[in-house]
C-alpha cells in the first residue's frame, strides 16, 4: 500500500507537468514565483 506522502508527491508532479507541458515552462513558472516573492519583499 503506497504511503500518503508518495501519493501527494505524485499528484503534485502530475499537476505541475499538466500545467506546464514542457521543462522550459516549468522554469518560467519557478522564475515568476521567485520574482513575485522578491517584489513582495521590497
Report on this model:
- It is a single chain.
- The protein is mostly helical.
- It has one domain (4-41).
- The protein is built from 2 helices and no strands.
- It has helices spanning 4-20, 23-41.
- The N and C termini lie far apart (46 Å).
- The model has no long low-confidence stretch (mean pLDDT 77).
Keywords, please?
single chain; mainly alpha
Number of domains: 1
What is the subunit arrangement here?
single chain
Q: Structural class of the helix and strand makeup?
A: mainly alpha
Overall spatial form: flat
Parts with pLDDT < 50 across at least 5 consecutive residues: none
Give the strand tally: 0
Précis, in short:
The protein contains two helices and no strands. The protein is mainly α. The longest helix has 19 residues, at 23-41.
Would you spell out the secondary-structure blueprint of this structure?
Blueprint: H1 4-20, H2 23-41
Amino acid at each position: 500500500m503506497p504511503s500518503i506522502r508518495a501519493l501527494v508527491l505524485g499528484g503534485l508532479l502530475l499537476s505541475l507537468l499538466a500545467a506546464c507541458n514542457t521543462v522550459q515552462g516549468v522554469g518560467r513558472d519557478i522564475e515568476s514565483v521567485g520574482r513575485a516573492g522578491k517584489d513582495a519583499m521590497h
